[in-house]
């Protein structure tokens, strides 16, 4: 009955029906799969001996960068930033800092491919959310309804209404699926390869599987003679800083395995580059050399490439669109990426000069961008080609 009901409705729950053997068996399988998945994630997170530093660094870099960007409220019709930012964007969860909230959302997306937050309080006047709480994605269950038309969300045995009680931010969402897929899940084969390389490093280095040297005889030796020569050498010199002495036709040749010769370093660098590609990061951010010298302009170009090609389309826009649902009509949330895209000080000052001289930027707008307080009379546009004369004064002269 349980299996038939599941095929018909997509749910095992049958009102007032006792738990069937099929249901218990399926729950057991699901539990086992969940334990196996958690074990795998624990290994990747570094909670076991099979941790992967490149993955940890990639996740940390993206999450910290995202959390350092502040959101602002923008008028959707004019695309102009509002002077006052609502508290739901300044500090979404009053019990923690803005950085902590955004970091949790970013980590949820990176490790699970899904981020969830629920509305904690609303304004009595407008009904708009005033506080949220980021949820542990492992505690949220998402399934289709019986007609497979709308997703149903459950958190701690509570059914929550989507886009009212609970908000869902997925990445890599495929048609017909209700949950997204994280870069971790999409590249499990690579993680297995990297962990195999880690085991290889342990065998080569930690376990000292490579012989320290070779005793070479110019004449053939029997097995017994070879073992006697080796035992005599090791008994005299192993663990002692003594000068080695050989006699007859026996010569000692030290062996030193080179990681480059074994293609070990190359394979490790290739794996790190693969991690960078999967997370959309330039290899420079994970310490992988690109083969060319890094200059200030090159680093600035990589930062811009990371923001425009990875951070904004993959993470920022998804978060912005969901947070815009918390705002009044015609208001949208936008991350301020100016800090990441700022040019060097000389280029910025030249751009400021051009903006003021052309008459489309006020001195106070420039001062605000540079973190300086406004100056008296700095809110007026300057006459083109004459920065010392406000437009209003020139109009009076005319």
In brief:
The chain has 398 residues and is an alpha+beta fold. It has helices at 2-9, 21-45, 53-67, 87-90, 98-112, 183-186, 188-206, 223-237, 264-279, 296-324, 338-341, 345-358, 363-369, 391-397; strands spanning 71-75, 114-122, 129-135, 140-144, 151-155, 158-160, 166-170, 213-217, 250-254, 331-335, 382-383, 386-390.
Task: Set down the secondary structure blueprint.
Elements: H1 2-9, H2 21-45, H3 53-67, E1 71-75, H4 87-90, H5 98-112, E2 114-122, E3 129-135, E4 140-144, E5 151-155, E6 158-160, E7 166-170, H6 183-186, H7 188-206, E8 213-217, H8 223-237, E9 250-254, H9 264-279, H10 296-324, E10 331-335, H11 338-341, H12 345-358, H13 363-369, E11 382-383, E12 386-390, H14 391-397
Antiparallel strand pairs: 1-10, 2-3, 2-7, 4-5, 5-6, 8-9, 11-12
Helix pairs in contact: 3-5, 3-9, 7-9
Explained architecture:
The protein has 14 helices and 12 strands. It is of the alpha+beta class and 398 residues long. The strands form 5 sheets. Strands 3-2-7 form a 3-stranded antiparallel beta sheet. Strands 4-5-6 form a 3-stranded antiparallel beta sheet, with no helix packed on it. The relative contact order is 0.10.
């Amino acid at each position: 009955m349980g299996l038939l009901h599941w095929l018909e409705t997509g749910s095992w729950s049958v009102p007032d029906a006792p738990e069937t053997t099929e249901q218990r068996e399926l729950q057991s399988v699901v539990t086992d799969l969940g334990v196996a998945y958690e074990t795998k994630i624990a290994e990747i997170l570094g909670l076991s001996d099979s941790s992967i530093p490149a993955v940890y660094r990639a996740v940390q870099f993206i999450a910290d960068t995202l959390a350092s960007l502040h959101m602002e409220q923008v008028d959707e019709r004019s695309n102009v930033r509002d002077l006052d930012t609502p508290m739901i964007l300044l500090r979404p969860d009053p019990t923690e800092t803005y950085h902590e909230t955004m970091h949790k959302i970013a980590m949820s997306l990176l490790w699970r491919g899904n981020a969830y937050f629920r509305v904690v309080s609303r304004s009595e006047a407008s009904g708009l959310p005033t506080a949220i709480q980021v949820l542990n994605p492992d505690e949220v269950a998402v399934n289709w309804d019986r007609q497979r038309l709308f997703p149903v969300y459950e958190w701690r045995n509570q059914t929550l209404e989507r886009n009212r009680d609970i908000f869902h931010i997925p990445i890599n969402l495929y048609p017909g699926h209700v949950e997204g897929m994280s870069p971790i899940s999409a590249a499990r084969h690579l993680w297995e390869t990297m962990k195999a390389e880690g085991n290889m490093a342990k065998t080569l280095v930690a376990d000292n599987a490579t012989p320290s040297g070779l005793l070479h005889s110019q004449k053939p030796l029997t097995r017994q003679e070879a073992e006697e020569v080796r035992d005599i050498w090791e008994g005299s010199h192993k663990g002692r800083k003594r000068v080695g002495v050989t006699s007859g036709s026996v010569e000692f040749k030290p062996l030193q395995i080179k990681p480059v010769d074994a293609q070990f370093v190359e394979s490790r660098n290739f794996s790190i580059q693969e991690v960078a590609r999967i997370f959309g990061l330039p290899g420079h951010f994970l310490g992988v050399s690109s083969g060319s010298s890094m200059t200030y302009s090159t680093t600035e170009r990589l930062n811009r490439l990371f923001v425009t090609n990875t951070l904004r389309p993959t993470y920022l826009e998804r978060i912005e669109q969901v947070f815009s649902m918390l705002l009044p009509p015609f208001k949208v949330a936008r991350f301020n990426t100016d800090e990441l895209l700022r040019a060097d000080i000389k280029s910025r000052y030249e751009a400021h000069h051009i903006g003021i001289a052309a008459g489309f930027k006020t001195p106070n707008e420039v001062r605000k961008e540079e973190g300086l307080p406004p100056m008296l009379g700095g809110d007026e546009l300057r006459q083109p080609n004459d920065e010392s004369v406000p437009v209003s004064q020139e109009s009076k002269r005319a």
